[in-house]
Write a structure and sequence with these properties.
By secondary structure, the chain is α+β, with helices and mostly antiparallel strands. It has one domain: RutC-like (60s Ribosomal Protein L30, Chain: A, 2-Layer Sandwich), CATH 3.30.1330. It contains 2 helices and 8 strands. Helix 1 packs parallel to helix 2. The longest helix has 18 residues. This is TdcF protein. GO terms for molecular function: deaminase activity. Belongs to the RutC family.
Length: 128
């Protein structure tokens, strides 16, 4: 089975040696998204709520480019520099996902690229 690269201009370009996502069969592996505005490649704001919304928009754009939606995500990993933002993440996530929600992990990390406060990656299973 060959892998195919998923790419969209509606999400930030890769800032390293990786692809926005890779599709293998009906499974799509999404690379971590941070709150960069795709058009400027700049962090949207220092405000956590704005950063979280931008990250979910970026994840949504990659899912759509792969032929799915956030509702096709089976597993999501959320990396936060401050776990006290967990409730805010739940509130914002509910705007981008319908039940049943994906499996999820949320962990606090010491730092993220470009000094952002949140990063999200995931695994999506497309309908056959």
């Amino acid at each position: 089975m060959s892998n195919s690269v998923i790419h969209t201009d509606k999400a930030p370009q890769a800032i390293g040696t990786y692809s926005q996502a890779i599709k293998s069969g009906t499974t799509v592996y999404l690379s971590g998204q941070i709150p960069l505005v795709p058009e400027t490649m700049q962090v949207i704001s220092e405000d956590f709520t704005e950063q979280a919304n931008q990250v979910f928009k970026n994840v949504q754009a990659v899912c759509e480019a792969a032929g799915g939606s956030t509702n096709h995500l089976a597993k999501v990993n959320i990396f936060l520099t401050d776990l006290s933002n967990f409730a805010t993440v739940n509130e914002i996530m509910s705007q981008y996902f319908k039940q049943p929600y994906p499996a999820r992990a949320a962990v606090q990390v010491s730092a993220l690229p470009k000094g952002v406060q949140i990063e999200i990656d995931g695994v999506m299973e497309l309908p056959e």
